[in-house]
Amino acid sequence: MTPHPDAPLLEVDGLRTYFDTLAGTVRSVDGVSYTVHAGQTLGVVGESGCGKSVTALSILRLVPRPPGRFAGGAVRYRGTDLLTLSEAQMREIRGNRISMIFQEPMTSLNPVLTVGRQIAETVQLHQKVSRAQALQRAVEMLRVVQIPEPERRAGEYPHQLSGGMRQRVMIALALACNPELLIADEPTTALDVTIRRRSSTCSSACRRRWAWAWCSSRTTSAWWPKAAIAWS
Ligand SMILES: Nc1ncnc2c1ncn2[C@@H]1O[C@H](COP(=O)(O)OP(=O)(O)O)[C@@H](O)[C@H]1O
Ligand SMILES: [Mg+2]
Q1: pLDDT by residue (tens digit) across 189-203?
Q2: Nearest CA to ligand 1 atom 26
Q3: Could you tell me the pTM of the whole model?
Q4: Quick one: which ligand is closest to 47's CA?
């Protein structure tokens, strides 16, 4: 992939993602367009079921197919249409250049791996570091998302953590490889209120380094750090 330095970080252009079901075709995403430049925060607002998660999953080509399929449009990352890349090229993009915080932490974390190991494996997948360095990075990331006693927690399994902590592990996982673009799909829904406040502080600090695409519902919009809202 040849990056175009002047191109926007992300351009979603007339994206259409449909699901072919027994009851007919569901047009979950039907002509969505938006642009995110480096340093920008984009907030996407919409009622439940309007297609926020499917749009986010489409960008990283994580929509299960079948029943899902791309029915049109383009998703350009630094000028390259992600929909035309091979699966191997997409693996290089996911987690490393574009990262996603998923809406459901329990379905995204591996129940049989400690959380430290999961973060370390993601780091080792994309960066040439030793196992010990990767584990050290994992502990550092758990500290960034304000998990108390990160050294001890790194050795625990997802079921040993509270729902809010699991959500923070997801955030740590998404940020571990220093992605250029972070897509956060209702990232604070599972957090308790005091932690939401702290995580929005953390977001402001991170914003200087990453452009954020926030997919969130109205109920969490108060937590966005100076977010611009765009939906076209
Ligand atoms: N696997 C699927 N098969 C059929 N329809 C789906 C599937 N996944 C999502 N949808 C539909 O796509 C629409 C958008 O869903 P979603 O993106 O999850 O909404 P939200 O904006 O709440 O995140 C919904 O109507 C949902 O029912
Ligand atoms: Mg959703």
Answers
A1: 555 554 455 555 445
A2: 49
A3: 0.78
A4: 1
Q: What is the per-residue pLDDT across 47-75, written as a single tens digit (0 to 9) for each?
A: 888 888 899 899 999 999 899 999 999 99
Q: Identify which ligand lies nearest to the alpha carbon of 27.
A: 1
Q: To test the ligand 1 pocket, which listed residue (52, 54, 221) has its Cβ within 8 A of the most ligand atoms?
A: 54
Q: Which domains does the chain have, with CATH numbers?
A: 7-97+181-232 (3.40.50.300), 104-178 (no CATH)
SS3 track for the chain: CCCCCCCCCEEEEEEEEEEEECCEEEEEEEEEEEEECCCCEEEEECCCCCCHHHHHHHHCCCCCCCCEEEEEEEEEECCEEHHHCCHHHHHHHECCCEEEECCCHHHHCCCCCCHHHHHHHHHHHHCCCCHHHHHHHHHHHHHHCCCCCHHHHCCCCHHHCCHHHHHHHHHHHHHCCCCCEEEEECCCCCCCHHHHHHHHHHHHHHHCCCEEEEEECHHHHHHCCCCEECCC
| Distance from Cα 68 to the centre of ligand 1, integer Å | 10
Q: Which residue's CA lies nearest to atom 19 of ligand 1?
A: 49
